[in-house]
Amino acid sequence: MRRPGRRGIAAVTLVTALTVALGVTAATAAPAPPSWDDVEQARGDVQATQLAIARIEDAARAAEQTYLEAARSAVLLGEEYHLAELALEQAEAAAGRLEQRRDAALDRAAESGARAAQLAAQLARSGSGDLTTALLTGDADDADDLLYRLGAMSSVGARSQAVMARAMQDKNTAEALTAQAELALAERGRLADEASDSLAAAIAAAEQAEQRLATQQIMMGELAAQLASLTGRSEQLEREYLAGLGGDEEPAPGNQAPGTPSSPAPSPSSPPPAPGPSPSIPPPSPSPSPSTPPAPNPPSVPAPHAGAVATAISFARAQVGEPYQFGGRGPDVWDCSGLTMQAYAAAGVSIGGHSATRQYSTAASRNRLVPYAQAQAGDLIFYSTGGATSGSKYHVTLYIGGGQMIEAPYPGKTVRIVAVRSYDRVPYVARPTP
């Protein structure tokens, strides 16, 4: 075991700098970890040792929670970008359709205008007087007025009136579609700027989360060394112990959303736990708020397709250990919705695109949402602020049964298999396969 030297002020300065870098404010920070002087003085004194260990543990929890806050912010901003990108794609498609309609309308207006001009020339040769001459030689505003007058003349037959009316209708249609196309192009430009801004914010947030994780790991090394000095165990064991304390499975006490349970997902083969007085067995999911859409009818959602589920889970398992990257959709970097999208794509199933929100809404539109208590392997588990069913979903995972899920979690982490978290979990899962 490493024997620490007397670091005194230097150790305090390091801890203070790391605390500031992690963004822990004085109002919310846990008690400061002990200095090396404190550690050395505590050895041999049971009460002082316990106090020093408690301060180390509190510092480890605070560091982990600070990182998790940054990580959750990053994935929230990442989902905002995915939604902005989707809106841009839809706007581009709409603008493209309008441009095609506008171009076709301009062609029709040119053709009908040519027929109208030909008719006017014929009428001029037949002696329709100054009216048709003015039509041929006048400016655009005069031509509009004269076309209406020419169409009303008793000397013009029904066929001529139809030609003139079609020319005016095509002209008006072309002008209206041109205006709509211009508005669509402007909206496309606005959404492009919005998507660009969202992308920049998401990338910056991901980088900040990774920086906080790196800073946290430096702090954890220092804390593990202190703890090893107090307990006599190896630094590696103490580092693993401290990592488990912070735990990104749930938020620190006091940060959990009201009414959110803390139990992992039930095994798909076991019924949901019955409500009872014991606080250790909460219901499997919070009840929807009155404004939440009514729960889907479970019997209307068929059991998952075993072959597709096996393929999707096998694909996701093969990615375990690969790094998280914002916007990643493979082949060796992933974000949450990129992993679930590609896992089911491997089974030939489309689940709604590269967005957790879109994957949830796609399942809802297909009537494939199932209460969380009835989750089966292959279902998608979603997370949103407060577990809300409405609004955006910032995270999606693949349930594999036995209370476990595969996920691409946060910046700085890798694809992993973990117990299902309840914090911010949406009370319905999506069943992608019919």
TrEMBL record:
GO terms, biological process: proteolysis
Residue stretches in coiled coil: 46-108, 192-240
Pro residues: bias regions: 261-302
One Pfam family it belongs to: NLPC_P60
Keywords: Coiled coil, Hydrolase, Protease, Signal, Thiol protease
Record's signal peptide: 1-29
GO molecular function: cysteine-type peptidase activity
Protein name, entry field: C40 family peptidase
Source organism per UniProt: Microcella pacifica
